[in-house]
Write a structure and sequence with these properties.
The complex is a heterodimer of chains A (about 280) and B (about 260). The N terminus of chain A is likely disordered. In chain A, helix 4 packs antiparallel against helix 9, helix 8 runs antiparallel to helix 9 and helix 9 packs antiparallel against helix 11. With about 280 residues, chain A is mainly alpha-helical. Helix content of chain A is about 80%, strand content about 0%. Chain A is built from eleven helices and no strands. Chain A has a single domain, classed as Orthogonal Bundle (MetI-like fold), CATH 1.10.3720. By secondary structure, chain B is α/β, with parallel strands linked by helices. Chain B has two domains: about 170 residues, Rossmann fold, CATH 3.40.50; about 70 residues, no CATH class. Chain B is about 40% helix and about 25% strand. Chain B contains seven helices and nine strands. In chain B, a hairpin with a 6-residue loop joins strand 8 and strand 9. Chain B is globular and about 50 Å long. The N and C termini of chain B lie far apart (about 40 Å). Classes of the chains: A mainly alpha (about 280), B alpha/beta (about 260). Chains A and B meet through helix 8 and helix 9 of A and strand 5 of B.
């Protein structure tokens, strides 16, 4: 019965083709693949800004609740004119640079130690697991007690926040290096330190750089929190002062500064990935 | 330099993998290890190369290491084991970097081995840019650059398609006829074993024991001729007869695990 049905189908298909002449096989595999559409992103961005500006201009939204984009630009112009923007940026940049670098270097050292030595793993993993989930902002009062209200506590907050994710990204990266590559190097009598340098380190880099994406964002969050206590200059201090005075245009200018900093870090890491991970 | 395996047994936990292996690989000889899946062929090779400690017994070398050899035992891996972040040239040079060689000597060794394995034009390519066959050539070049006394090959052609396997086998034969290195070749492919080996060592199913050693008394250069095919077919049948039943039992064991 099946054969008969198939036979009938074949005949119908054959008959159809004969009636319609030669037809191209229709293409049916379109869609379901994302393609880059840069113009759409820019257009959407421009539309949102335009709608926001329009809502402000027409009085639909009160400028106290949400200042117009033109007001935010005005606040930026003022910041440039007074030169204060450089003071805020340089103070924040200094805290970020020192805090992030300190947390990253210490995190890399402990991460590699955990990844490579069993004793360091047995000691380090439980400690890191216990301390990692603590919101570092909760430690800020304690850090102020330890390091003072000046730069020390701000840098330490950022360093603490950066340290734990770096440790985890690093030792996970070491764990992810294929063991057959290490055995290969050992079979050629390559010494241990060269195996770490030539096999383990490059194999861990993708994970370390992925960790950088997370730690730069964490550093920015903690920077703002730390600068809200006992700082005269810095983006966090600037945002807090603007908020206290209901200068929402200035407050948003500070937020835009943070967003631009975040984008600059992301671009920097993307550049590093292109340079260091070209082999992928 | 001979390689002597004396009473090697090995367990993974409570699982007996190898049982009292005794074998000598003579200088310039190619020995092929065959046996059913899971019989411990690759484990035995790892023990021979000193990257796995046997539970019992030992592996010894008898005689002096050749003067020009930098590394007595070198591996060719089934999965190539290439550093994906290093170029062909750097993958090969990796195994020379810790040896006391001048930069010129190192360069000369790399150039020579890349030429011998037809990789000179690909020296700057990354592994991901190469086909499976070319990647394995890099694995072979890396093994040869240290002038090994004994080449240990763990199913070097298994990850390749049939045509590439055939091409690489021909290259191996040409290379071996030129340089006559001592080699241990682990494979599950009987034809491969018969084309290359002077001696085929048949292992039993787990725990692997030496079931039989079959000599192939025919020069490798003559094994491609039509006259040789009758004898090779006879040896193929003999080997298949030795492992067929064990392979069937081993296959059922693997499925039950």
């Amino acid at each position: 019965m099946t054969d008969q049905t198939l036979g009938t189908r074949r005949t119908e298909a054959g008959g159809g083709a004969a009636e319609a002449g030669r037809q191209p096989v229709p293409f049916r595999a379109g869609g379901f693949i994302s393609k880059p559409r840069r113009w759409a992103s820019w257009l959407a961005f421009a539309c949102i800004i335009a709608a926001w500006e329009l809502a402000g201009q027409t009085g639909l939204i009160s400028p106290v609740y949400l200042p117009k984009p033109s007001d935010v630009i005005g606040a930026f112009v003022y910041l440039f004119e007074t030169g204060n923007i450089w003071r805020h940026l340089s103070d924040s940049g200094f805290r970020l640079l020192i805090g992030w670098s300190l947390g990253t270097v210490c995190g890399l050292v402990l991460g590699f130690a955990i990844g490579i030595w069993s004793i360091a793993r047995a000691v380090g993993v439980p400690v890191v697991s216990a301390l990692f989930p603590i919101p570092k902002i909760a430690l800020l009062p304690l850090l102020i007690l330890w390091f003072g209200i000046g730069e020390g506590s701000k840098v330490a907050t950022i360093a603490f926040g950066v340290f734990f994710p770096t440790v985890i990204a690093t030792f996970s990266g070491v764990d992810g290096v294929p063991r057959n590559l290490i055995r290969m190097a050992q079979s050629f009598n390559v010494p241990g330190h060269r195996i770490i340098w030539k096999v383990v380190l490059p194999g861990t880099l993708p994970s370390i750089l992925a960790g950088f994406r997370i730690t730069t964002s964490i550093a920015l969050i903690l920077l703002v929190a730390a600068e809200m206590i006992g700082a005269r200059y810095g983006i966090g201090a600037f945002i807090l002062a603007a908020g206290n005075l209901y200068q929402t245009d200035q407050l948003l200018a500070g937020v835009v500064m943070l967003s631009i900093l975040g984008l600059v870090f992301a671009q920097g890491i993307a550049w590093l990935e292109r340079r260091l991970l070209a082999w992928r | 330099m001979d390689l002597v395996i004396e009473g090697v047994s090995h367990q993974y936990g409570t699982l007996d993998v190898l049982d009292d292996i005794r074998l000598t690989v003579g200088e310039g000889e190619i020995v092929s290890l065959i046996g059913p899946s899971g019989c411990g062929k690759s484990t035995l090779l790892s023990i021979m190369g000193g990257i796995l400690k046997p539970s019992a017994g030992g592996v010894f070398v008898d005689g002096a290491m050749p003067a020009q050899s930098l590394n007595p035992f070198t591996y060719v891996f089934q999965d190539f084991a290439l550093l994906p972040w290093a170029s062909v040239e750097d993958n090969v040079a990796l195994v020379l970097e810790h040896h006391r060689l001048s930069a010129e000597e190192r360069r000369a060794r790399v150039d020579d081995v890349l030429a011998r394995t037809s990789l000179t034009d690909f020296r700057h390519a990354y592994p991901r840019q190469l086909s499976g066959g070319m990647r394995q050539r890099v694995g072979i070049a890396r093994a040869l650059v240290v002038s090994p006394a004994i080449l240990l090959m763990d199913e070097p052609l298994s990850a390749l398609d049939a045509q590439t396997r055939e091409l690489l086998m021909e290259d191996f034969l040409a290379l071996w006829l030129r340089e006559r290195m001592t080699a241990v070749w682990v494979t599950h492919n009987l034809s491969e074993a018969l084309r290359l080996a002077d001696r085929v060592v048949v292992l039993s199913r787990r725990p692997g024991r030496i079931r039989e050693e079959v000599s192939v008394a025919m020069p490798q250069a003559e094994r491609g001729t039509p006259e040789a095919q009758v004898e090779l077919a006879r040896l193929h049948d003999q080997l298949w007869g030795l492992i067929k039943e064990e392979a069937q039992v081993a296959e059922r064991e693997v499925q039950h695990d």
